[in-house]
Structures are given as C-alpha cells and as structure tokens.
C-alpha cells in the first residue's frame, strides 16, 4: 500500500555534484561482482577457455567483450539521463509498504510536449511503516545549508526521520527528531480505535507512532506532529528538539495543519472527536478552542488563502462517519466547546480519509474515502455541490490525495491507496462540466497517467483504474 504522499515543487529537486556518476559506478561494481561470483561458482572445475579455444575464437570473444562494454556504456548514459533532474520536473514522494518492506519512492513528473510523464527516480528503505510525510526547503538555515529538498517521515516508531530528498544514494536520515535510544520497531496500530492504557507523556519526545506531520510554510524551522501518544508537538529543526507540547487530546492525534499565512496558528484533529486551534503565541500549552464533532477526525485542513475574503480563516474537517464540515476559526472561542458549522455534508459512505483543496481554482475540493471513491466538489457560497465522482477500485481505499501546488501543473492530482499504486489524474479531462463550475479552468491536452505495475515501474495507460460515475 501507499499510505502517504507529498508533492515536491518544480525546480526544488536538484542533483548533487558527481552523485549520479558515483551511484551508477557503484551499481556497476555490484553487478560485476555478482557476475564474477556466479561464473566462479559454475566454472570452478572447468578447463580455462584459453586452453581449448583457438586464437581465432579468442579474437571473437574479445570482440564480444568490446560490444558488451559499448552496450553497457550506452545503458549508463541512458540511466544518467533518467536520474538527471530538470528545472521543470515535479516530484511525488510516496510512502510504500510492499511484502512487509517499507520505503520512500520518488516519482518524477516530467513535463513533456506530449504531456506529463511519470516514472520512478529512486527509492530508499525505511525503518518502519510510513504514516505521514511533509516536505520543505530548509536550506536557509546553517545546519541544513545543503538540503534544499527535505522530506520528514512519521511512522510506527516514535521518531520523525528527515531525509535529503535530493540524495539518491543515502541510506540514513540526515536528522532524527525524538529519542534515538528507543526501539526502531513498534507494534502500535495507526488506526486503532480500541481502548488503550493511558499514554505516558514525555517532556521532550513522542512515545508512540507519529500519525501526522505539517511543515510551517512561513517559519520553516518549525515542524508540527501529531501522535498516537495523544500529543501535538512543535519541533525546531535547527536544534532538532521539541519546543512546544500540547496534551489536551484524549485519543490519537490523526491530523495537524499549519495555517498558510499565519505562522502561529495550528489545527489538530483527534480520534477523540475534537478539533483544536493552537496558537504558539499563547504561553500556556492549551488550545484557543476545542470543538466537538460527531465522529473521529480523519483530516483537518485550512481553506487556501488564495481564495480570499472570509475563506482565509476557514477550515475543513473530515470524519470517520463519512461527513465533512466547514468551520470559521473566528466564530469560536475557548468558552464554547460546540460551534455551528458553516456547512455539513455527508460526503462518502465510509471514512473521508483524505482531502485536498485547489489553491488555484477557487471553491474546488477533492475528497477520498475508504469506500474506494474519489469525489470533486464545488464549495463556493458555502453550498457544497458534487461535480464528479470516480470509483477507485484500481487504487483501493484512498489513503492520500493532493493537488500539485505549481500553477503550471495545478490541474494535476496525485492519489494513492491500499493497492500500492500511485495515480496522477488531470481534472481537466472532466471538460465542460468542470468549466461551468470553475470558469478560470482552461481546457488543456489531458491524460490519465498511472503506475499500473510494480511500484518501481512507472507506466501510463488508459485502463480503467479510475472509472467515472456520473
């Protein structure tokens, strides 16, 4: 399955000096060593070729060797070209678990004349099952000077691992947030709703799985995390220490989200059926408000500030019972634990496990569910209207979905789920129906791109991984 994904903006992915050559060289050395070992095992008792073959045949063998070297050089050049990032490349990072092995897979979304092309760039093995991902460029800080593209990974272990997303041959994280002496394995269940023993809250670290992550877009040294230990933490990556801890939730914290423009405002949503607004300007570690909702919280996210007006301080909450609700953070207070939603909608038959707003098309919302469906909504005027629905049987239950934030590719949506497949969908393929709801959309040359084989094989096809339901 692919349990989490995140987009890397175009131009942020850059190759490190000489890294590609070293990577290919090391791969060749390993390959040659394996060939030598195989030949040694099979020919250990055989007579040498020079003792049997005539000089003419030895000459032919030499020519074959030259041809093999030439073909290998050609393959190396092709591999080098595939590994070379371009300024126009966007990247989708996926948290994949396959045959009990977890890894990060980096897919390049290449902008070509024939439309975007999806292929796997590289991957790295993780120490535990990935549950959440967050990306940022933190190269402005001295400690992270060489890390223009970083991805933070939350998993079943209590630590947060941060990797250099541009390093194709690095096996270890560049930093770990949390107690590094604890076991790197965990038996905790990320989605458990059963009653547990009270969690022990540590003053410095998480003590259970890290279910959610959010990187502050304005103050990039701050990374927020929500954990199965029922706490929300704010980390300073310049010191790799936790600087704030909120312990007001009674169950696992499934989702956290920083405000896009207000760097001190943080949303948190929990399996205890509450949504909280946290403000880092408040000295006490208590929320500004804590709203009760009808079910376990699956996701919280702010409405894009690019929509303007009152929307800038509105936020969406999606729930385990299939409901989604929109609230205004200015219409709540610490005195009132209940707030009337601006609107509430039964979005899916099962949990609304993923949601994403379009920053470039005002009113456009996409939701994904464990019921194996994807829905596109028009949320303008506080009246959500269903525009389009797809069955996602090829992807399975939806665990993650996100729009590309680059304006040039803002019509592209990434989604993943229980069947371990990444899909990119161009929403402009909807055609006139979409334009009627969102006039700013212009029809472009569009296709559905899909990785329909093993996750390390990028492919695009027109089979029915997503089927439309009108």
Automatic annotation (TrEMBL):
Transmembrane segments: none
Keywords on record: Repeat, WD repeat
SMART domains: WD40
GO cellular component, one term: nucleus
GO biological process per UniProt: rRNA processing
WD repeat intervals: 203-245, 345-387
Stretches the record annotates as Disordered: 58-83
Protein's name according to its UniProt entry: Uncharacterized protein
Originating species: Galdieria partita
Lineage of producing organism: Eukaryota, Rhodophyta, Bangiophyceae, Galdieriales, Galdieriaceae
């Amino acid at each position: 399955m692919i349990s989490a994904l995140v987009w890397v903006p175009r131009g942020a992915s850059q190759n490190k000096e000489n890294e590609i050559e070293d990577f290919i060289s090391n791969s060749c050395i390993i390959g040659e060593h394996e060939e030598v070992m195989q030949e040694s095992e099979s020919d250990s008792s055989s007579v040498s070729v020079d003792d049997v073959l005539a000089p003419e045949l030895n000459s032919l063998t030499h020519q074959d060797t030259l041809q093999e070297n030439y073909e290998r050089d050609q393959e190396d050049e092709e591999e080098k070209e595939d590994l070379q990032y371009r300024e126009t490349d966007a990247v989708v990072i996926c948290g994949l678990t396959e045959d009990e092995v977890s890894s990060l897979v980096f897919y390049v979304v290449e902008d070509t004349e024939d439309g975007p092309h999806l292929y796997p760039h590289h991957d790295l093995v993780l120490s535990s099952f990935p549950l959440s991902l967050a990306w940022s460029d933190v190269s402005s800080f001295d400690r992270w000077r060489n890390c223009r593209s970083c991805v933070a990974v939350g998993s079943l272990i209590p630590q947060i691992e941060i990797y250099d997303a541009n390093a194709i041959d690095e096996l270890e994280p560049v930093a770990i947030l949390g107690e590094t002496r604890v076991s790197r394995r965990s038996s905790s269940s990320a989605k458990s709703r059963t009653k547990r023993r009270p969690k022990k809250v540590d003053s410095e670290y998480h003590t259970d799985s890290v279910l959610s992550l959010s990187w502050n877009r304005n103050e990039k040294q701050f990374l927020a995390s929500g954990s199965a230990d029922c706490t929300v933490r704010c980390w300073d990556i310049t010191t790799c220490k936790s600087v704030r801890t909120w312990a007001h939730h009674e169950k696992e914290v499934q989702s956290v989200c920083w405000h896009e423009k207000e760097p001190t405002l943080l949303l948190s949503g929990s399996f205890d059926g509450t949504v909280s607004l946290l403000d880092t300007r408040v000295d006490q570690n208590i929320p500004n408000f804590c709203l009760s909702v009808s079910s376990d919280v699956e996701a919280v996210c702010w409405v894009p500030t690019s929509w303007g007006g009152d929307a800038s301080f509105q936020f969406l909450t999606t729930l385990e019972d299939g409901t989604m609700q929109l609230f205004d953070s200015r219409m709540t207070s610490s005195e009132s634990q209940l707030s009337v939603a601006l609107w509430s909608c039964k979005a899916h038959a099962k949990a609304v496990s993923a949601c994403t707003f379009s920053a470039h098309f005002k009113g456009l919302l996409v939701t994904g569910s464990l019921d194996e469906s994807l829905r596109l909504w028009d949320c303008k005027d506080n009246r959500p209207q269903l525009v389009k629905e797809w069955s996602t049987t090829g992807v399975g239950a939806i665990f993650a979905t996100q729009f590309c934030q680059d304006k040039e590719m803002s019509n592209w949506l990434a989604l993943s789920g229980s069947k371990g497949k990444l899909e990119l969908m161009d929403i402009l393929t909807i055609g006139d129906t979409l334009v009627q709801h969102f006039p700013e959309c212009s029809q472009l040359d569009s296709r559905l791109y899909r990785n329909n084989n093993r996750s390390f094989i990028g492919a695009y096809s027109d089979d029915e991984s997503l089927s439309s339901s009108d």
